[in-house]
Amino acid sequence: MNQFKNRGSGCLLGLAVGDALGAAVEFKPPGSFAPVTGYRAGGPHGLSPGEWTDDTSMALAMAESIAQVGWDLDDQARRYVDWWRNGTYSVNGRCFDIGITTRASLVLFERDGDARNSGDRAERASGNGSIMRLAPVPIRYLDHFPNQIEQLATLAAESSLPTHGSPQCLSACQYMALILAGLMHGLDRDTVLAPDWEPLEQLRRLQPLHPAVDVVALGSFRRLQPPEIQGSGYVVKSLEAALWAFHDAQDFREAVLKAVNLGDDADTTGAVCGQFAGAFWGEAGIPQEWLDGLAKREMLEQALTGLIVNNG
Ligand code: MG
Ligand code: MG
Asked: Which of 3, 133, 181, 209 could in theory staple to 59 by disulfide, Cβ–Cβ 3.0 to 4.6 A?
């Protein structure tokens, strides 16, 4: 497998693996459960080991949209509705876990048909629902890095709009897409996570990061530890927690287990961390038993074929 394909696959499969590992302890306070070491049954949705949740479903919906019609936010939103209403893109044929902000936005989209304006723009609506599904954007548009960072950042922010329109969410998607693109290009982890990484400085010149997101980009995840690091549903804390788990881990397994064992929004912290860790260590770095045990893996492989074969 070539290195680009390995890292692109790793990014999307890492998302799903992290989601599936965290699903069994979602909403549990940290320390209230036996540490996660692999897939297990249960959680609030009563899933089987290796089954994944909304994070992966929405990523699959966006991936299929990009592969089939190119960049079209209304088409992306229609597929999110198809997941919510009909269970398409779900692991077991039904949507069992849509977020509050996402549902409200899709209700608005069904009424107005305008995905660019359906996501709530209020600061209080800054959940992690758009960073959790981001991987298809930097995978498909990897060629925009490093010479067309503005285009990559624009697509990343737009991908948030159908459901999450707040400044924090847009900025977090831009920062995360840049880091993922750098990692998929084979750059070193310490290079892309440096507070003054040149592509990041370019992004800041184009569009200053939201101040709360810039605190993370400047390295809060290196200074803080739990309980300040939290597996929170708030986009900034979620991104920070995922980077805390990723930045000094020895391998994919260590990174993603650190993320999900924060509890609370464990599946999503796992999905965000899994994107970073998968982009860095590649599919080859994901433990084989986690790839083999991933439910409906063929849906992810199909999405990857659409994203990577059409690339360039
Ligand atoms: Mg989820
Ligand atoms: Mg979640």
From this structure: 133
pLDDT digits (tens, 9 = 90+) for 15-39: 999 999 999 999 999 999 999 999 9
Please count the structural domains in the chain: 1
233 C-alpha to ligand 1 centroid (Å):
10
Q: What are the C-alpha distances in Å from 84 to residues 54, 93, 107, 165, 312?
A: 9, 10, 10, 19, 31
Q: How many CA atoms lie within 13 A of 58 on its CB side?
A: 30
Q: How far is the CA of 155 from the centre of ligand 2 (A)?
A: 23
Question: In CATH, what number is assigned to the domain containing residue 97?
Answer: 1.10.4080.10
Tokens standing for residue 222 = 């290196």
Q: Is 164 exposed, middle or buried (0-12, 13-18, 19+ CB in 10 A)?
A: buried
Could you list which residues have their CB under 5 Å from ion ligand 1? Answer: 53-55, 267
- SS3 sequence, 133-159? CCCHHHHHCHHHCCCCHHHHHHHHHHH
What are 221-257's pLDDT values in tens digits?
999 999 999 999 999 999 999 999 999 999 999 999 9
3-state secondary structure of 120: strand
Residue 232 CA to ligand 2 centre (angstroms): 9
pLDDT tens per residue, range 267-300: 999 999 999 999 999 999 999 999 999 999 999 9
Helix (H) or strand (E) holding 191: helix 189-192
Residue 244 is part of which domain span? 3-309
Distance between CA atoms of 174 and 288, rounded to whole angstroms?
A: 31
pLDDT higher than threshold 70 for residue 77: yes
Helix axes 73-86, 149-160, angle to 10 degrees: 30
pTM exceeds 0.90, yes or no: yes
Please tell me the distance between residue 252's alpha carbon and the centre of ligand 1 in angstroms: 20
266-281 and 54-69 helices, crossing angle to 10°: 50
pLDDT band for position 310 (50/70/90)?
A: low
Please report which confidence band the pLDDT of residue 1 belongs to, taking 50, 70 and 90 as the band edges: low
